[in-house]
Structures are given as structure tokens and as C-alpha cells.
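Take a minute with the sequence and C-alpha cells given here and flag any C-alpha cell that looks odd. Thanks in advance.
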Amino acid sequence: MKFKNTLLALGLIGALAITRFLPHPPNFTPVLSVAIFGAAVFSQRFVGILAALAAMALSDIAFGWHSTLPYVYGSMVLGGVIAFTLRKNRSVGKLIVVTLSSSILFFIVTNFGVFVSQNLYPRTLSGLAACYTMALPFLKNSLAGDLLFTLALFAFYHFLTRKQLVAAPEAA
């Protein structure tokens, strides 16, 4: 990855992290998108994920820490690992599948984190089911936000670097 493309990718990740401070519907955020994007475009796989985690950590300093952050950050890493499949074939269809898969995984992991780290539900299977059921209204916004922010990131990066969206990234 060329130095100016690296700076561009870091800038896009930082810009999206800043959007967390703007008013938005619940769960309509770029949290997962920055990990997917970073993992797919940086020459060294985990550098992109670490850049996304660092950007999120900086914004979380302002928002405050909470008991589910390990699940959020872990889900970002898992979404980034799934996004490694975009490194050689970056078609729009594959980008959508990776984003939706990562978003659903994020939903499952983070809401499990709510269940185990907060005392909102009884520690039973019915309590776990209630936790996921109560979270379902937020899933729509998560899916929409993840798709919008991820597609926008890749489209903007593609436009600014003038690379074909389906082109393989440069070797590390």
C-alpha cells in the first residue's frame, strides 16, 4: 500500500470515528465498518484492525468505558478477520455478504456480552432469549449503518485512489 493511500485510509477511519459524536439513530454507527475497511485495505492485515480499534478507543474515552466494550472490540476484530476475504476479491456482492455476516456476528456477540456482564436478564436460557429479543429493534439500524458506512468507505476510497473496486490489494 502506498504511503498516501495509507494516510487516506487512516484519515477515513478517523473521520468515521468522529461521526460517533454526531446525532444518530441508536446503533447506526461506523463501529464495525472501520474494522472491515481497515482489514481489507491495509497491506498488513492486523494494522487495519488495530487502526480501527485505536480510533474507537479514542472516541470511547469521551463516551466512557462500559462492561460490554470487550465484546464490542472483540466483535470488531472478528469482523476484520472476516473481511480478510476481501483482500483478493473486492466485489460489491462480496462486500455486502461480508458486511452482513460481520454485522450479524457483532449483534450476537455484543448482546451476549450484555447478557453476561449486566444484570438485566435472569441467567437462564429464557433470559438469554429475552436479551436477544429486546435487542432485535436495534439490529435494523446496525445492519443499515454497517452497510451504508462500509459501502461508502470503500466507494470513497476507490474514487480517491482511482483503483478498480474489484482489484486485489498490493502484496504486503
Remarks:
- Residues 125-161 form the longest helix (37 residues).
- The chain has one domain: 3-161.
- The two ends are 8 Å apart (CA to CA).
